Structure of DUF3570 domain-containing protein:
Amino acid sequence: MKSVAISLLALGVAFGAGAQTPKTEPAPDPDSDFLEGVLIDPPAETPAAAPIASDDEIPAASPPEQGTDTIADLDDLEIDIDPNMDDGRNNAQGAPAPPAADEPSPEGLDLIDQEADGPVLATEDGEDPTAGTTDDGNPLAAWLDPLRVSLKHETSYKFATPQRVVNNRSSVRLEYSKPLTSNLYLRLDTKLNLHWSNDHRANANDEDLFSELVTREAYLQSSFGNTSIRLGYQILPWGVSEGGAITDEVSPRNSAEFFFISLEESRVGQSMLLMDNFGDSGQWTAFFVPQPGYNEYPDRGSEYDIPGAFDSSEPDDDWDDAGTYEFGARWKRTFGKSDISLMAARLIDNDYLVRQQRFRMYGLTANIAIDNLLLRAEVAVKQPRAFFARSADSSDLGVVESDQFDSSFGFDYSPGGRALTYSAEVVWSRLLDWRDHIVGREQDEYSLVGLVSNRFFNDDLTLSWLTIYTEPYTSFRHRFLSSYLIDDNSTVYFEMFFPDERDERSGTWPYRDQKQFVIRYQYQF
């Protein structure tokens, strides 16, 4: 604990000394993500408006995981962190995602206004999808105007023995958001990843060039009065925690690269029907998933594979199998810059490695804004969860069930409303039906998440430091993230990951030597 406090204090003083006094609203950084790998994932949902900064694309403190999912903007980590950042957050892996403004979800669309001739849909970052479109008589130009293209190349190097290149990949990402009629809206977010010969995923698949097409969202949205309906492939982030998946259990996680997954890729889309109603009593959200998706795990033989740990096959569910349908609802009410949410859902556990497990979830989230301070709280009960167990008289693994209580309490603080932001959070998970022979975890597990972020040079340069401390299997995960906006189209990122695993019983012990730095360049137009 002392090392965490000392590192955060030192960095806080350093960042504070150079903090910018201007209160200019920073532009979201489409490719920054500092929380991606955390257990998280996280989402993360967007809380009420953060007192200090704004910008959904920011991240959840972070990286944008939304608004078109521009990568995580570390800056935006501000109290209103955006989950759509481009580099990461994940629940247990240590990826915080700060709250965003008063948006239902960083990754979703919102009906934000209504005119006499019909409702106006807004994009994830709150912008009118029709803004910026041109009507010069050229139908093709009008259709292509809303298209955004992101070209990216990333290289990561493992500097701990044995030293080697881990990632060497390029990607082309297409994001398209366009109103088709006065009340019909199209959203598409798809990405082609190209893993070159010395990339660990290309090696695992024994290919000189391993390509992969990943579609995060592809849906139609229609609005009638105060009601908005979305149908198609989409992501639904719930919750406000930056360090754990408390209520954020709907969308599966991409855990194929442990702590190093970018936030923009930390959630997996799935077919879903989603309905939002905005009324005087608050916002009501209901969802239905006919065929559940599941977490993605490392390729066999890849850098993050643990022999024998990911051998289970993903369940093969049929669309007409009512036993695997997922559904739930949430009520959210905003009071000024604060909000509260209540939710309930029937879900299939996204983690199928133990077994396909159906459970119920009941949760509550709250964001309370006081001047430049945002307080966050989240609790959930999950009944039941499945765990491996080994009896004293047998070496064979069995499966037992236990109800689980998860909670998180945290804050985001920006002195004087400046770009400098301090965030901290405590996450606690407890098994309510504990058995001594449960394997892989203790009855109580804790995490402490600390984050310091600041922006310099007219917000062109962003620097962030994230530390995650976990018990009872002691582990520290440190992450430094920086991004520099070269011009309106180009951004360069430098990140460094330093896991410090101290207990062989920890599930992340095999990743103790994964000390890496990453260089990433993105061009967007």
The radius of gyration is 22 Å. Residues 1-134 have pLDDT under 50 and may be disordered.
